[in-house]
Design goal:
The chain has one helix at 8-43; strands spanning 50-51, 68-77, 83-87, 91-95, 100-108, 114-123, 131-135, 142-144, 149-158, 173-184, 187-188. The radius of gyration is 23 Å and the shape is elongated. The protein contains one helix and eleven strands, in the order αβββββββββββ. Helices cover 17% and strands 35% of the residues.
């Protein structure tokens, strides 16, 4: 039998299918980052605290247990930013399900306006799914003028469902850790070259 020679119509159809596959894969690659971020926030994967649903609002958990746990607060700043950053208390104790608010103080110690953004995680990783943030300053750009300070709150609770997880019975404390980085276009910049301050120094969104 001789070789089959594809018709022009068949070749066009094949080309369109291939183009569609490439476009679909490209779209998935662009969607991967926000989808992964949503997955982490919904499940606590990788030490990412859960975000309370909009329906929940600021009401917090419906049940407060007698079990008490400690939450430690860690604050770090990338050297290039020139800010100081610290919690009002290094540690608090609260009942599981109890909503608490802790403020962080952020100050621009440099001689120029600069913009920063905070990333965060919870340790140990396996307990992050039970740390629920109702309000947080993380992943929001802030621009501070020289010497300017900001008091930023984080409102949270520990989900009472943690009591049903036998693997976490020995967990008595969690650590909420933040790191402030210079930012550009809403994204943290981990490597900064010498030059003008990162971010829009003429704009403040405090």
């Amino acid at each position: 039998m001789g070789k089959h020679t594809p018709t022009p119509e068949g070749a066009t159809r094949t080309a369109l299918i291939c183009a569609g596959v490439v476009m679909g894969m490209t779209g998935l690659s662009f969607a991967a980052v926000p989808l992964y971020d949503m997955f982490c926030k919904a499940t606590g994967f990788g030490g990412t605290p859960r975000i309370a649903s909009q329906e929940l609002g600021t009401a917090g958990a419906s049940t407060i247990l007698d079990r008490t746990m400690a939450v430690r607060f860690d604050a770090n700043v990338a050297p290039a930013l020139g800010w100081t950053f610290s919690p009002e208390s290094p540690e608090i104790k609260l009942r599981v399900g109890e909503t608490r608010t802790v403020f962080y103080k952020i100050t621009n110690r440099s001689d120029r306006a600069s913009t920063g953004i905070a990333t965060f995680n919870v340790a140990p990783d396996k307990a992050a799914a039970f740390f629920v943030k109702i309000q947080c300053f993380c992943f929001t750009e802030h621009t501070l003028q020289p010497g300017e300070s900001l008091a930023a709150p984080v409102v949270f609770y520990i989900d009472p469902e943690i009591a049903k997880n036998r693997d976490l019975n020995g967990i008595i404390s969690l650590t909420l850790s933040y790191t402030y980085f210079p930012s550009r276009a809403g994204q943290p910049v981990t490597e900064v070259k010498s030059g003008p301050a990162v971010g829009d120094a003429g704009k403040s969104n405090l």
